[in-house]
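Dock adenosine-5'-diphosphate; give full complex structure.
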Amino acid sequence: MTGSDAAPVVELTDVAFGYTASPVVQDISLRVDPGEYVAVVGPNGSGKSTLMKLMLGLLTPDEGTARLFGHPAHRFDDGARIGYVAQHASAAKEMPITVREVVKMGRFPHVGFGRLSPEDHAIVDDALETVGMAAFADRRVTQLSGGQRQRAFIARALAGEADLLVLDEPTVGVDAESVEAFYALLESLNDEGITVLLIEHDLGAVTEHAERVVCLNREVYFDGPTDEFVESDALARAFGTAAAFAGASR
Ligand code: ADP
């Protein structure tokens, strides 16, 4: 399943969803085009993770439609196109495997049950190089810093030739210097054409790095260029004034 390259990466139309009878997101219409760098911000419990799951087809809207690469999101099955980096890369944090083994996983959807070819290994090496983790290739992921671990998971996405990177608060618990390097890496990947979708609580990171901000609190309070978001009152309306100032001063 390739989809059309001209299709939006993500397209939500009039989406509403609730785990129970009352919706946690509603009236959501949102389109992300190839090559964009979009941040979704909102207070805790505002529906960011839910929105992301709807975008990726992990949840199905109660109302409206969700499309991913031009296909109904819940039926999209080309997982290699999506690189997902979770908070703390928690899913694999305890796995006793090396960085190289993590990155190799990115090739699995391409080789089925076959063995990795020399070309696959070269792609793995390139991905390790791109994220600056070649020197750590044989280290276990349990022995990495938070920032290094996140780089390993980006490398896995690159090895899978993902064209959409979805990151859920990727720098929580990562030291400040590594955070800067991490965002620089995201920016250079985006410059090469990878679409970046960042769920972020740290408003400082968002306003410095993303080109477009979607501010969410059950509904979309703002969707537009980051500089306009900073000037607008959307932040105060979505977060409540006190929270907005607390967040903005971080
Ligand atoms: P955020 O990511 O912005 O913190 P979430 O999307 O996780 O927000 O949560 C939005 C709302 O949905 C919250 O009120 C949360 O308690 C509720 N919620 C999230 N996941 C579930 C679930 N699996 N079952 C029931 N309620 C949930």
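Observed: DSSP finds ten helices and ten strands in the chain.
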